Amino acid sequence: MSLSNLSSQLSALSNANTTNSGFAHPSNRTNNESVGRGFHHSNKHGHAVVSIVNDPTKKASVLFEDARRAAEVDVGSLRESAVGALGELVEGISSWYLLHSNGRSSNNGGSSIEERREEIHHAIQSIYKSHVYLNPTNGILSNNYLSNFERGTANTQQNQQVDEQVDQLMTLLATCLCECAPPSTAADDEHGENINDPILMAVLQVVEYLIRHYQIHARPHTAHMMLRTFLPIHLMYPQLFQRVLSLVDLTTAGGSVGNSKSRKTNATMSGGAGTWTFLRPFAASGAKPINAKGLAKMAARDESLAMVLCDIGKRSGEVCVLEGRAVVVVSDNAAGGALPVRKGISAILSFSVGILVEALHIQSTSSEGRGGVRSGGVITGGVQESLVRKLLPLVLGACRSGGNGAQDGGYCPEWKEWGRLTASSLAMLCPLNGDVKTALCDAIVEGLPKMEKGSLSDDGDDQHMEGYNDRISTPLVDDASSALMALLAVLGSSHVNGGINGNDSSEHDDENDEWKYYLPMLPPGKDGNNNIVDYMGCDLP
């Protein structure tokens, strides 16, 4: 065969028309096998590589329903819309903090409402329209990068810097995304899903530009960021979430960004390739969205997904601290510097801890298979020790939040509650030894706000006590009550109460031998064997 004939055949193949113009077909025999394999294989929206490279009439999109409509908008217009959308988010968030700031300024002066509004607006703008993103030299939303940056020609360091900025921006956008009101049941669009919420549209405009110019849907690290951002609203906007799934290769999405040191530090929280593969059945058109129970079951089977859920919660708590400290809206020094928590941040934290606790419960009730732990040739049910070891540092750090009071600039109270709830669940579902329980109790106590010296009279005079009671605020009482409940849960927990599964322990000649091969964190017996000794609680710290 001559080279000319081969060239003509290849040219004919590349230009061949299909019966479904505008759609990209996978290499598989059935189109169903391509679902959830990313824009390389998408057979719904026309987001295939061939379409994007060779056909300027098709562009990958999360804002538009098909690739042809997306291509009608040029990338320059998308950038302008993204910058304007960030301004709208700044206005909305600033208004919320103004409403919850009680009119106080950062210098505790008597500034007017207008001065306070300007102060808060400037503080929030410094976060969302940061010079990092709009830096004329290397900001991902700058005109310079619009004209001169290309993913394919950029070196590794430049791409890594872009990924780090995208990571920070997507973390902020996730908290805004959950600010959206649930769609109306009377939505009049063709999918029965109203996406005209101004906050949602602003977030999508920013993400649209990142998809078009930086191909964040096509790179494993940034694809993971997209999934992490949209996962908390998968039930609220199922059609939108399916659109995101259709763009991403779920088999490769995962990993962390940053230098080698930060990647090693964040590797546990970011998951790896294959973490999101379980979503492939839910990416098909018309498929029912995965519910909370199903997501918890997958997290129980895959600890990397459980850690991603922790990462989602931790990041939202960090956004709360970042915003709260910037606007200096410390609710009350006596309450330990608790910062106000926006609806979006609260929703993400509730989503994270709710799924995580359910996953722990599912593991604890599993007696065999992937939900159990194999050790010494024996499969035992219960929470996997590897997951417990990864959770403990996070839980201890969350419980200690606010221990220094307002001296550290404030803390996110709901992140602390995330830690207390998880600590209680671990203690009740896992046979932890006394040292681990003591560490949990210490962390809970250390997280209590420190009272001012001399607040309580040593002589117990009623007059002093009355003044002291007047200074006790509602947030302080709520925080102390929550801490007390967490302490009682940890100290009163006993995975084995009166023998295995509540039976009389006299039925077991070998002291609780069914737990013999379980967690190495349990203390050894007095005879040196790895038998469980009494671990029913510990002394108060």
Describe the overall structure.
The protein is an all-alpha fold and 541 residues long. 51% of the residues lie in helices and 1% in strands. It contains 20 helices and 2 strands. The protein has helices spanning 3-14, 49-54, 67-71, 75-99, 113-128, 131-134, 143-148, 156-177, 198-214, 220-230, 238-247, 260-270, 292-301, 303-327, 343-365, 385-399, 413-429, 434-446, 462-470, 474-491, and strands spanning 373-375, 378-380. Strands 1-2 form a two-stranded antiparallel ribbon. β1 (373-375) and β2 (378-380) form a beta hairpin.
Architecture blueprint of SSEs:
Layout: H1 3-14, H2 49-54, H3 67-71, H4 75-99, H5 113-128, H6 131-134, H7 143-148, H8 156-177, H9 198-214, H10 220-230, H11 238-247, H12 260-270, H13 292-301, H14 303-327, H15 343-365, E1 373-375, E2 378-380, H16 385-399, H17 413-429, H18 434-446, H19 462-470, H20 474-491
Antiparallel strand pairs: 1-2
Helix pairs in contact: 4-5, 4-9, 5-14, 8-9, 8-10, 8-14, 8-15, 13-14, 13-15, 14-15, 14-16, 15-17, 16-17, 16-18, 17-20, 18-20
